[in-house]
Design brief:
alpha+beta, five-stranded mixed β-sheet, two-stranded antiparallel sheet, 7 strands, about 25% helix
C-alpha cells in the first residue's frame, strides 16, 4: 500500500506468479511443458522480473541431456496445453539434470537468480518468445528487454 492508500500487487507467495493480470501456477506450466515435450520430469517453471513490467513473466528450465528437444515446435505444442498468459516467455535448455532437494523437490532458487541473463547460464541455451516461436537470446535482445525496446 502506498502513502495514498492505493494497494498494488507486489509478489506472490508459494509456487505461482502473476503475469498480465493472471495468476499462473508453476505446476500447471511444468505439466503443460512436460506434455508438450513428452517428459514427466526435468522441467522447472518460475517467474522472472522484467524491468518496467508489473508481475513476473514465465520462464522454464528444461533438462535436455540427450539434446533431443525440438525448440522450433515448442510454442506450437505449448498452445495445445497452456493458455497464452501461462506460456513461458523464456526457455532455458540445460545440458544437465535439474537439481533437487533431499525430498526430491526442484531447486528453483538459483534458476530464479540467473533469470534470463545469458551471462549466468553456465553454457546452457537460452531462448525468448518472439512472433509465436522461440528464438535464441542474443545480447542485443537482452539489452532491448532491459531498456523496454523488446516487447514481451
Amino acid at each position: 500500500m502506498d502513502k495514498f492508500g492505493y494497494v498494488y500487487f507486489k509478489d506472490r507467495t508459494g509456487d505461482s506468479f502473476r503475469w498480465k493480470g493472471e495468476n499462473v501456477s508453476t505446476l500447471e506450466v511444468e505439466q503443460g511443458v512436460g506434455k508438450a515435450i513428452g517428459v514427466n520430469n526435468g522441467v522447472a517453471a518460475f517467474g522472472v522480473s522484467i524491468p518496467g513490467m508489473d508481475g513476473k513473466c514465465g520462464m522454464v528450465a528444461i533438462s535436455d541431456i540427450n539434446g533431443g528437444l525440438n525448440i522450433s515446435n515448442l510454442h506450437g505444442e505449448l498452445a495445445r496445453y497452456l493458455p497464452p498468459y501461462a506460456r513461458p516467455v523464456f526457455v532455458r535448455v540445460m545440458r544437465n539434470e535439474l537439481e533437487t532437494t533431499g525430498s526430491f523437490k526442484l531447486q528453483k532458487m538459483e534458476l530464479r537468480k540467473a533469470g534470463f541473463s545469458s551471462a549466468l547460464m553456465n553454457g546452457d541455451l537460452l531462448y525468448v518468445l518472439q512472433g509465436g516461436k522461440y528464438i535464441p537470446m542474443r545480447s542485443e535482445i537482452y539489452d532491448d528487454i532491459l531498456h523496454g525496446k523488446f516487447r514481451v
